[in-house]
Design goal:
8-stranded mixed beta sheet, alpha/beta, 20 helices
């Protein structure tokens, strides 16, 4: 008997080919052959920037084993001659829901186990534990060229983790290539039956508190209590972090949260980022952009037209150019099909974006290399390089060509045939050789080709023919009486050279058999036909891109207003100070400040030296000039809810988090002379949220509104509103009486005092370094 030593066995194990391991019993004979597939003579797009005009792709099992211009094809390989066809990396969907069921709705029962107090947190939700195979959806995605999907459950503020899955149709265990791909977040609580949060400002405060709770739990909280959600959240904060935005201003709110906690989010946008382009670009956050585009509004009926706002019309005009503007601004982005009615819409919409200025290579990168890089999958999908997954598509033309056909999608080395490659465009004019007779015929149409046969010298007499095709086999039949061939002509043959050559055997009138052939002319379509096809694209999408208005409303401007140096002459000036009312006086403003007030102001005195700015002088004779009105109790310019009325004490919410710079009420207040306001929380609670003191800087972003150095205030309220007994009858919210309101305030002040003393003691111990201070749990409500 031959004996193998242990070192020899180990050597054989580590030098033999490493095929995919199977830990499931095989039912029947196991296929141990692993042939090489060689795709030759193709235009290989290794990546959006690297193209091989005559390349070869080698695939074995589920991997690419070689790609290049002059690769040697291994002996015994299965050769696929793709003469003139294109090979592309399969697409990557970065924000899908493939195979993940929606969250159950309508349940009030608390989940079992030691979990977070609020059911808007689903950190323990993991897509890899929920995903189920869905052959129909997988087929629809593969039909558009997708090979990989980042899938998740879109539910909750903290949504848990997504998974990367390839659409290979194998077992879920094999197709999930990265079980914990990213951590997902949003401002929407989803299926949570809890009342809190009920507003955007509440969602932001709740998420901030959750992040602080997670830090506390990781540091010492796990010694005091158990919480499966916080434990799961801490475990996934090292993953890519994806945050859903509902509109452009959310992108900046998400960036502010990221700065506070030292996090960098990938933001799933809404397609309107162009309206705050500079601020979005400055945030440095990668984006996932929807491929959805607004449909044209029906404005034929004058009354219905009144319901369409100028902002909606501007968005319809500018949305196709969103990606192009972001690309020029240096923003990294990927595209998602989430929101499309059908996945196939992606190509027409992507072409519209390219017509609006997006570079075609950047468009392809946004559906291949960029989403792969966002989720740490660049070594596996998104490109065609040795060692990567064999995820690719075979197409007739460039991916963005209107007449492009996706013939095959290969996922993890598995072939999915979509449309036979021999189903080429047969249109054109052919020379038909029948023994000693030469005729011509023209093929028109693609779905149902029509054939007309005529003599070369006389195309006025045309005979319609019947064309049938099955794969490469073709049958052509026509009545030849008008062509001096009385009777039926029946031709059978094969199509070669991508439709350019037909040949075979046929039967002439009288029953004689003959060889025949047809050769297509070099020009398949005349210039007029090609021009007619090009014109089918809506000319509006070829028009110059319109101006962005700041803000994007009917009263916005193409240029953001800037500070100027202005002197108002001969005005009646209401100083509202010791000087009283000055008549025939001048006021100079510069750099956003009042530089001088008085009689006969001199430019040389105001601006000594050579660096004198451009000064605009305005004759204000007969006019009154005073400082702007300050509204100390306002609820305008607050996005998605002025009240967080779900709890009696919501001191943690901040109006400054939800400034809406696009609110038309800003314009209307300015028209009435109001220049600064205090944004107050509503009166739903005894202790409401923190107020925000802002300047009404119409056209600028939300970050430009707060008054620097302004003191902080908080909203308190008494009366009927706060006890909610007149309309909130579920009995779950305290207080329900005015006595209860008083007690809430006493209790709140007492808790805040105790909390502050605990923090002072903690900070004192740290300063003296007498012992390691144990930090108390951060409580944003009591901080406020």
């Amino acid at each position: 008997m031959r004996r193998w030593s242990v070192p020899v066995i180990l050597c054989w194990l580590f030098t033999s080919p490493s095929w995919a391991q199977v830990n499931v019993p095989v039912n029947g004979p196991d296929n141990t052959t692993h042939p090489v597939h060689a795709f030759t003579n193709a235009i290989v797009h290794v990546s959006p920037e690297e193209v091989l005009p005559d390349g070869t792709l080698l695939v074995q099992e589920d991997r690419v084993i070689g790609v290049g211009a002059r690769l040697r094809v291994p002996a015994g390989a299965i050769v696929h001659d793709l003469q003139g066809l294109h090979i592309w990396p399969a697409l990557v969907e970065p924000y899908g829901t493939y195979g993940v069921p929606d969250a159950p709705k309508g349940t009030e029962a608390a989940p079992a186990g030691a979990r977070f107090w609020n059911r808007g947190v689903h950190a323990t939700t993991h897509a890899d534990q929920l995903i189920m195979a869905d052959a129909e959806k997988a087929g629809a995605l593969r039909a558009q060229g997708f090979g990989t999907v980042i899938t998740q459950r879109h539910d909750g503020i903290v949504r848990g983790t997504s998974a990367a899955v390839v659409l290979a149709g194998r077992s879920i265990n094999e197709d999930v290539i990265l079980p914990r791909c990213a951590a997902q977040f949003s401002f929407r609580k989803g299926s949570s039956p809890d009342n809190y949060p009920s507003s955007l400002t509440g969602s932001i405060a709740f998420l901030r508190q959750t992040f602080y709770d997670a830090r506390w739990y990781a540091d010492q909280g796990h010694l005091e209590q158990s919480d499966a959600e916080l434990e799961a959240l801490n475990a996934q904060l090292g993953l890519p972090l994806v945050f859903e935005a509902s509109e452009r201003n959310d992108v900046l709110r998400i960036a502010a949260i990221g700065r506070e906690f030292g996090m960098r989010f990938v933001v799933k946008g809404n397609g309107d980022e162009y309206a705050r382009l500079s601020e979005v670009a400055a945030s440095g956050q990668p984006l996932i952009l929807p491929l959805t585009l607004p449909e044209a509004y029906d404005v034929e009926d004058p009354f219905e037209a009144l319901e369409v706002s100028t902002a909606q019309l501007k968005h319809w005009e500018l949305a196709p150019g969103n990606a192009a503007r972001l690309s020029v601004a240096g923003v990294t982005f990927a595209f998602t099909t989430q929101g499309l009615k059908e996945p196939a819409e992606l190509w027409s919409n992507l072409r519209r974006m390219v017509l609006a200025g997006l570079d075609s290579a950047a468009a392809i990168a946004a559906i291949t290399t960029h989403p792969a890089a966002m989720f740490g999958l660049s070594d596996r999908v998104g490109a065609l390089r040795k060692g990567m997954l064999a995820n690719f598509i075979i197409t007739s033309d460039h991916l963005l060509a209107r007449k492009n056909t996706i013939h095959e999608t290969w996922v993890a080395g598995r072939r999915f045939l979509l449309k036979e490659r021999d189903d080429e465009d047969l249109r054109g004019i052919y020379d038909l050789n029948l023994r000693t007779t030469i005729l011509k015929f023209e093929v028109k149409g693609t779905e149902k080709p029509e054939v007309e046969i005529y003599r070369p010298a006389d195309d006025s007499t045309r005979v319609k023919a019947t064309l049938q095709r099955t794969g490469q086999l073709i049958t052509l039949q026509f009545e030849g009486s008008k062509l001096d061939m009385p009777g039926q002509v029946r031709l059978n043959g094969i199509v070669h050279d991508r439709g350019g050559i037909w040949d075979g055997q046929g039967q002439l009138p009288g029953g004689a058999w003959t060889a025949w052939s047809a050769v297509r002319g070099a020009v398949r379509r005349n210039d007029k036909e090609r021009e007619r096809e090009d014109r089918t694209l809506d000319s509006l999408y070829r028009a110059p891109v319109g101006d962005i208005w700041f803000p994007l409303t009917g009263f916005g401007r193409a240029q953001v207003a800037d500070t100027e140096t202005v002197i108002f002459r001969h005005a009646t000036v209401w100083t509202n100070g010791p000087q009283g009312i000055l008549r025939d006086a001048d006021v100079c403003i510069s750099g956003g400040r009042v530089l001088g007030v008085g009689l006969g102001l001199q430019v040389a005195t105001l601006f000594p030296g050579k660096g004198r700015p451009t000064v605009t002088e305005i004759d204000a004779t007969g006019k009154h000039l005073t400082c702007g009105i300050i509204d100390e109790h306002s609820h305008i310019a607050i996005a998605r809810g002025v009240n967080e009325g779900s709890q009696a004490v919501t001191a943690e919410v901040r109006m400054g988090d939800v400034i809406d710079p696009d609110d038309i009420d800003i314009y209307r207040n300015l028209a009435g002379g109001v220049t600064a306001i205090q944004q107050l929380h509503g009166s739903a609670n005894p202790i409401g949220g923190q107020s925000s003191l802002i300047k009404l800087r119409w056209g600028l972003g939300a970050d430009a509104f707060p008054i620097a150095g302004a003191p902080g205030f908080i909203k308190f309220a008494l009366g009927e509103n706060v006890k909610q007994s007149n309309w909130n009858n579920d009995g779950r919210r305290f207080p329900q009486t005015r006595m209860g309101v008083e007690q809430v305030m006493y209790d709140g002040f007492h808790r805040a005092r105790t909390y502050a003393e605990t923090w002072r003691m903690h900070e004192g111990l740290k300063a003296k370094e007498k012992e390691k201070a144990v930090a108390p749990r951060r409580d944003l409500e009591l901080d406020a």
